[in-house]
Design goal:
Layout: H1 2-20, H2 26-30, E1 49-50, E2 54-55, E3 63-65, E4 77-81, E5 95-116, E6 122-130, E7 158-161, E8 167-170, E9 174-177, E10 180-183, E11 187-196, E12 206-207, E13 210-221, E14 234-237, H3 240-256, E15 257-259, E16 279-281, H4 293-306, H5 311-322, H6 335-338, H7 345-360, H8 363-380, E17 385-386, E18 391-392, H9 415-434, H10 438-459, E19 460-461, E20 466-467, E21 471-472, E22 475-476, H11 482-490, H12 496-510, E23 511-512, E24 515-516, H13 534-546, H14 550-565, H15 599-608, E25 610-612, E26 619-622, E27 631-636, E28 643-650, E29 655-661, E30 667-674, E31 681-683, E32 686-688, E33 693-694, E34 704-710, E35 715-720
Parallel strand pairs: 6-12, 26-30
Antiparallel strand pairs: 1-13, 2-5, 3-4, 4-13, 5-8, 5-11, 5-13, 6-7, 6-11, 9-10, 14-27, 15-16, 17-18, 19-20, 21-22, 23-24, 25-26, 27-28, 28-29, 29-35, 30-34, 31-32, 31-35, 33-34
Helix pairs in contact: 3-4, 3-14, 4-5, 4-7, 5-7, 7-8, 7-9, 8-9, 9-10, 9-11, 11-12, 11-13, 13-14
The structure holds 2-acetamido-2-deoxy-beta-D-glucopyranose (7 copies).
Residues 49, 220 line the site of one 2-acetamido-2-deoxy-beta-D-glucopyranose.
Length: 726
């Protein structure tokens, strides 16, 4: 392997130099073949026990001796507060804010060196957690114990009655004395405020004064600990920022990968016995800590492409299917006893089932739950279809009060529901094909085509060149949403000229400094034109790549992920972004939400270029859509072994080089970009015909692709514009 690489470097270098020595310096030329160093981007803590990174100095107040002592190995910290009646300066509640350096989730422990109080009752310590400094206060940014839907055992902080002898306290959910001196348990946070105080309601067990000594603090990390040795897939490219955001996305999803705990979720009555104790993919690290199936449309792909823990997704999909309603509707999550009425999530359940089958090859799952797919598609959705148009129409059947991923108050033949319906039908038709259910496959394909045609017939607004959202009264509202417009392209509802028109409209009307808004205006609700959902933005980014508009896909990625990565808490990716780029629901916003990690599938599927089209990647394509990325390499895990890809381009000279290896027995189609039909193309240094297929989207004016089919387990090299190996 090593020898082969060295020989390849040599010939590659010589030929590349022969064409244009000046355009490449020594480093970039060989970058794609340099030793892998993706490990440097991994964000996971090194160990399950995590220690604070620093003290946020400007929050320190009151009489605190050695605040740095809360960091490991820095001595002891003393909190001292005299009894009331002494000077007001001395009366400030002693406070220190600890920064763990990045968002984390788990159970906090404090090693106390003891305490002293001159009167009965122990000195009280209170803790308030936050993902951001903006929402850090004496009350946590979110707390299950302080939520209308929670059990209200705390007022939003965790309380401790500090014992006089040294001991270690751990934030277990519950109360020290009956229903007094209570803690919320698990937290997802970056910062924690530690302050001496006591609730009046906790008398006589705690008092807001005395002296407390703290030796150290740590967190027992409860989520998936994604250290470098646990990666089964990875991505690296010439763009350092893209690489880091890919690993940030993986870390965000890792933080959501956890065992479902009866007392960790919001609201606590989401804790269905059928899911408690199982590994799941939660929506967020802080909240709800309840797995929602729409979220999995993005976060499961991130999970499959980075760590081989498909059970986290499978457990959720199986549990929701097990709670299917008799009319075929599938609940979005366990919340409210599996009754939260969403219209789109049963379709995402079908799409996620397809993804599980394609990415992990779980035939047992797909066979067991195939009847649930049939019932959803053939019983529930027909019941909310307008027979005059064949479009799903919110208002028909039970659907009037139903919500969706954004609880958007929209109505009628909404483009998003219908384009997602086409996706679910297409995916189900493919599943049916692999299970030899030919009649189902044909029926679903034909219905997908009918719905697709109806979307074009009824929902297109030629005045702006994009699809309407839905209806206001008897006519279409003058508003256009990112979700339906993007999915119309992903599903092929939009042909290539409409796709270009839609994407240019979204660029013009929806672009904000922190991503693309989910609506072009505020017709449906105030603030919509300033709100960005990283979740649904994935499908626009995917639409841009699929239309061949890699530059605009990368431009959107850089605005969206560039914003999140440079704003507190940094690293983890957010549930939603609101006006001025701030967390969209204030302190309630989850700042580590797996559904925002679309950068991971976007880069692996379209920059590295690997997409499955048969169960467990038994059939797959490799089709890089490189834009300004000069090289990329990575590994995609499959049940039968890795698919390894490494490519490098010189766009100006029209050169492209790709090497790939896949498991024996799988069938791959590899596409390489070519400028025109006179460029030479080589497979394993043998010339092959340049049968240029035009790129979608730009009418073929920017060249196209040449494809070859690979069926063995060997390494193959395809080069465009020059011959490798001679
Ligand atoms: C402390 O400094 C940070 C910036 O490091 C700032 O965001 C925060 O508002 C300050 N807080 C206080 C209480 O001064
Ligand atoms: C702060 O607390 C320490 C330790 O109890 C004490 O020695 C010191 O006098 C206190 N400082 C003030 C200004 O009260
Ligand atoms: C004020 O603090 C001193 C120790 O700093 C203590 O001896 C005294 O009892 C306090 N006074 C009152 C009224 O609590
Ligand atoms: C959840 O919390 C309640 C109240 O503290 C406790 O009784 C119960 O045992 C906890 N359940 C689990 C599974 O930890
Ligand atoms: C961390 O939590 C795990 C899971 O609850 C537990 O098994 C382990 O003992 C804990 N580690 C420490 C050091 O408390
Ligand atoms: C796309 O559809 C529109 C409307 O039906 C049609 O006018 C246009 O010619 C089609 N474009 C392509 C490339 O098929
Ligand atoms: C074809 O593309 C190559 C590489 O970009 C370029 O050098 C050549 O001039 C092109 N030929 C034609 C006929 O456009």
């Amino acid at each position: 392997m090593f020898l082969r690489s060295v020989l390849l470097f040599h010939s590659f270098t010589c030929l590349w130099n022969a064409i244009d020595a000046s355009s490449y310096d020594g480093q970039t030329r060989l970058a794609s073949e340099a030793p892998d160093d993706w490990q440097k981007y991994v964000r996971s803590p090194a160990n399950q026990i995590v220690y604070p990174a620093s003290i946020v100095a400007n929050y320190t107040q009151g009489n605190v001796t050695n605040p740095q002592g809360l960091l490991t190995g820095k001595g002891t910290t003393l909190f001292t507060r005299p009894q009331p009646g002494n000077s007001s300066a001395a009366d400030l509640s002693p406070t220190v804010v600890v920064d763990f350096g990045q968002n984390i989730a788990g159970y906090l422990s404090i090693s106390f060196g003891g305490s002293y109080n001159s009167t009965p009752g122990r000195p009280g310590i209170r803790l308030a957690f936050s993902e951001t400094l903006e929402y850090l206060s004496t009350i946590s940014d979110f707390s299950r114990g302080y939520n209308v839907r929670g059990d209200r055992i705390t007022p939003g902080s965790d309380q401790i009655a500090v014992a006089d002898q040294p001991y270690t306290w751990t934030a277990d959910h519950g109360c020290q004395y009956g229903n007094q001196v209570c803690a919320d348990g698990l937290h997802g946070f970056r910062y924690v405020m530690v302050y001496m105080d006591a609730l009046a309601a906790d008398a006589p067990y705690t008092t807001p004064y005395g002296q407390v000594s703290i030796k150290s603090m740590s967190l027992n990390f409860s989520a998936f600990l994604g250290t470098p040795d646990t990666f089964t897939g990875w991505f690296e490219s010439s763009d350092d920022q893209l690489n880091q955001w890919w690993f940030d996305g993986v870390y965000t999803t890792d933080l959501c990968t956890d065992v479902f705990g009866a007392n960790d979720t919001d609201p606590r009555n989401s804790a269905s016995p059928s899911i408690v104790g199982k590994l799941v993919l939660h929506d967020g690290a802080k909240r709800d800590r309840d797995p929602y199936v729409g979220d999995l449309a993005v976060s499961s792909r991130t999970s499959y492409l980075s760590h081989s823990v498909p059970e986290a997704s499978r457990n959720v999909l199986a549990d929701l299917a097990d709670h299917q309603r008799s009319d075929g509707w599938i609940p979005p999550a366990s919340i409210n006893g599996y009754t939260l009425p969403l219209l789109d999530y049963p379709m995402w359940w079908v799409v996620c089932s397809y993804d599980l089958f394609m990415y992990t090859g779980d035939t047992a799952y797909i066979q067991q739950y195939y009847p649930n797919i049939v019932k959803t598609l053939d019983t529930f959705y027909p019941s909310v279809t307008d027979p005059r148009t064949q479009l799903l129409s919110k208002g028909f059947g039970v659907s009037a009060g139903y919500g969706d991923y954004g609880f958007i108050p929209r109505n009628g033949p909404v483009t998003y529901y219908n384009a997602l319906y086409v996706l679910a039908l297409q995916n189900a038709a493919t599943i049916a094909q692999f299970l030899s259910k030919d009649a189902d496959s044909a029926r679903w394909s034909s219905r997908a085509a009918t719905v697709s045609a109806a979307i074009n017939t009824y929902n297109f607004d030629s005045s702006v060149g994009a699809f309407y959202d839905g209806t206001c009264g008897d006519s279409y509202c003058n508003t256009h949403a990112q979700d339906g417009n993007s999915l119309s392209i992903v599903t092929g509802v939009a042909n290539s000229s409409i796709a270009n028109s839609v994407l240019s409209y979204l660029s013009k009307a929806n672009a904000r400094p922190y991503g693309n808004a989910f609506y072009d205006n505020d017709v449906i609700s105030g603030g919509y034109s300033q709100r960005v959902y990283p979740f649904i933005s994935f499908f626009e980014i995917q639409a841009r790549f699929m239309t061949g508009l890699a530059d605009s896909a990368l431009e959107e990625i850089r605005r969206l992920y560039g914003w999140m990565s440079t704003h507190d808490p940094e690293i983890t990716q957010w549930e939603g972004i609101g006006p001025n780029g701030r967390p969209y629901e204030g302190d309630y916003t989850s700042m580590a939400h797996g559904w925002a990690s679309g950068i991971v599938p976007a880069l692996t599927n379209y920059i590295l270029g690997v997409v499955p089209s048969g169960p467990g990647f038994s059939v797959y394509t490799i089709k890089p859509i490189p834009g300004d990325v000069e090289w990329a390499k990575g590994v995609v895990p499959t049940p039968n072994g890795p698919i390894t890809v490494n490519w490098q381009q010189n766009q100006a000279l029209g050169l492209f080089y790709l090497t790939a290896t896949a498991p024996a027995g799988s069938q791959g189609t590899i596409y390489v970009p070519v400028s025109n039909s006179s460029v030479a193309v080589y497979l394993d240094s043998q010339p092959i015909p340049n049968t240029l297929q035009k790129r979608g989207g730009d009418g073929g004016t920017n060249g196209g692709y040449v494809s070859v089919t690979i069926k063995d387990g060997l390494t193959h090299t395809i080069s465009v514009g020059y011959k490798v190996g001679s």
